[in-house]
Write a structure and sequence with these properties.
The chain is mainly alpha-helical and about 200 residues long. It is about 75% helix and about 0% strand.
Length: about 200
Amino acid sequence: MRKLDPVRHEEKRQEILAAASRCFERSGLKGASISDICRETGISPGHLYHYFDSKDAIIATLSEAWLDRTRQRFEELSAKESDVATLLVAEVGRLAPSGPNSGSALVFEMLAESARNPAMAEVVQAHSRSLRAILVKVLRRGQERGVIEPGLDAEAMATVMMAMIDGLKALPLRDPKLDPQATAGLIQRMLEDVLKRGAKVVRR
């Protein structure tokens, strides 16, 4: 039996994931088939199944990767020593979609899929708990430094921030003509006012 090369194996997995992502963006999660992904990758279905058991497994892997990138960004914020309130505000703006083809539709298809697929629901819910915990940590660190309102409920604020981020991603779906960056700017101003209002009083 030929020995598996883990590096080549992972490279091929990433190639399949990239092809699947393109197919899903064009046709949606339900519309894109294994055959479409195989044509995009240039391999046979039998070859693909050496790397993923099913289309659901591909979707779950893409979901985990997207969720992990978001989580890692906020973990980086928690390690910074500068004004965490300003960093949080900037991060909300950075997560705003750049247009109707920014991948937001795929994100929401993944969330919708979690309502039908228990395995994906577990991934999404675990990520949400992890992200909320990280945001709470960042907010409380800001409170300790006096740059975020000390009386703010960090748990509730973290939940609101996650809702803001999801809302920004939904804008291209609601109205492709809207300017997500302009809306993100307004949300940033509102968020900054809430986060720093009490801290400004404390520093006087």
